[in-house]
Every structure is written in structure tokens, then in C-alpha cells.
Amino acid sequence: MRTDSQSFHIAELRGLACILLVAYHVVGVPGTGMQVDDGSIYRYATSSFELIRMPLFTFISGLVYAYRPARGGALPSFFVKKLRRLGFPFLVVSTLFYLVQTRAPGANGSFAPGAMWEIYVYSYAHFWYLQSLFLIFAVVALLDAAKLIDRPLPFAVALGLAMVACQTIHTESNVFSINETFVLLPHFLLGVAVTRFRDRLPRRALLGAGAAALLVGLALHQASLFGVIQHYFGWNSVVALLCGMGGAVTLLHVMPSSLVFRTVGKSSYAIYLHHAFFTAGARVALHKLGFDDAAVFTVALLAGLTGPMVLEALAQMRPWTRVALVGKA
Questions:
Q1: Which chain regions cross the lipid bilayer (predicted)?
Q2: Residues 6+ apart with CB under 8 A from 278
Q3: Confidence of residue 33 (pLDDT cuts 50, 70, 90)
Q4: Which of these, 45, 46, 96, 118, is most buried using a 10 Å CB contact count?
Q5: Domain locations in the chain?
């Protein structure tokens, strides 16, 4: 049995996560995006993956982090790299997005905060994820540096506490997206566990447990979407943990090799950072030209995937644009 990272199609999995994310932002929430009816197939499809999208991104981050975890003597270097990878693009791209959102017609500027400084402190657009991911890296790196989660039992305790915190901790101000940090931390830790303890986690048993959790979670979530259960399952619910953790483990094992998904996955970070510029531009233009929802969705989705790829290639041409726009040295 292969146990290294090459036994999984991680790039393809990133590509799938990107496609789900861009599709979600093309459709948007009520009042944004395509502004389709709540009962439309587009709204239903994106809502069906609501509890899987961001947990999948975070699970992959944990999976990859565990191959080169932080160590005590290398903590300063680790945090410098994370600031370059996450911090600089967060400041630059969120600023550009705010300026476009508040000035471009049809860009849903009413959903932007009144003061620009708020976008750096509070949860804003899709950039909240960079804040949360940095905090998650910081927490796990400090635990690793102190060698507190090297062994299965203390790791299981940490994962259990993270799952409890996911469902119980919530702040009103949500400074630096701390609420989402607690929501996503269990998924990151699960990714770390799959890599770190792979010799103790038989693939068949792991897939079976993941698939069972996913099926239970999906059944309850779909029952909620169809009104069979009169309850909304948020990101911090047990159902969200079942869908997110079960979905990530299942998809990790069943994701096939695919040139399309792999190509998208290799540019996943650039797509995450910049897709909204291209989806919004395509959507506004097509709406003005009178195209129907199917055309708007298809073209905007393709624009949100390919536009950032082109931008990433151009950004590679200068050292400062590599750092500022895609977080690369």
C-alpha cells in the first residue's frame, strides 16, 4: 500500500475545490452574483456543497503542511514564509478588490464596509480565509514546535477540543475572522492527521469512516435544503463536521487523475485570490448584453478560472508582482 502524497491526486483535489468555490461566487448569495431565485437549480447546487467547499480547501492545507511541519528552531522562518505567502497578497489584493467593489457599477459595493481599514481587521469578502488560515497555521505551528501533537493520543485530544470549539466559540466582532478560524481548525487538523499518522490509518478503514460520515451528513443537509427538516445547518454544526471531514477524506481517496482538474489545481491560490475580479466583470457584461443565466454562469465560471491563471503567468515576470499578487518568492 502506498502511503506517500503521490498516492493521492492532491492537485486535482485542489482543482475541484477551486471550481466549487468559483461556481459559488458566480451564483452568489441573495443580493449578489447572478441574483437568481432561492429555488433555482444554481442556488440549490451551490448550497449542496456549502458544507464541503472551504473544509476541503483547509483539509488539503493541513495535509500538505504535515509533510514539512514547523519546528521550534525554524519558527521565525516559518512565519516569515507564511506572511509572504498569505500576508502580502491579503493586503494588496483585498485593497484592490475594495477599490473596485466600491467604485465599479454593478459590483455589489453596498456589501463593502464604509471604512477601508475595516477590511484588514474584520472578515471581508473571500479574503477572510487568508486571515483564518494564517491563524490556523500559527496555532498548529506553535503546537508542533512544542511537540504537543506528535503522538496520536495528544493529537486526538487536540482534534476533539477543536471540534468542540468549532461548535461553541463565537465572537460578535469576529476580529481577524476568528470565528471561521475555529470552524475550520478541525478540518486542518484532520488533514495533518491523515499525513502524520498514515501508517496507523489503513486506507480502507479511513475511506469507510469518511464515506459513512459523508453519507449521514449529506442526508441531513439535503433534508434541510428540501424542508424535510426545519433547521439550517451552519458551518459550526455537527452536520457541517460530518460533511466537511467526511467529504474531504472521501474525495481524497476517490479523486481520479485529470488534466483539467490538475491544471486548475496548480493555480489554486491565484484563482482563490483573483477569481472575483473576473467573475464579476464577465457577469456584469453578460447581464448588460441580455444573456440568459446558463450563459452567464458558464462564461463567468470559465473567466474566474482562466483569468487568474493568465494573471499568475504575468505576475511571474517581476519579483515584486510575484510576492504582491500570488505570494511567491
A1: 12-31, 51-67, 88-106, 126-146, 206-229, 235-255, 267-289, 295-315
A2: 300, 303, 304, 306, 307, 308
A3: confident
A4: 46
A5: 5-326
Instruction: Pick the more confident residue, 20 or 5.
Output: 20
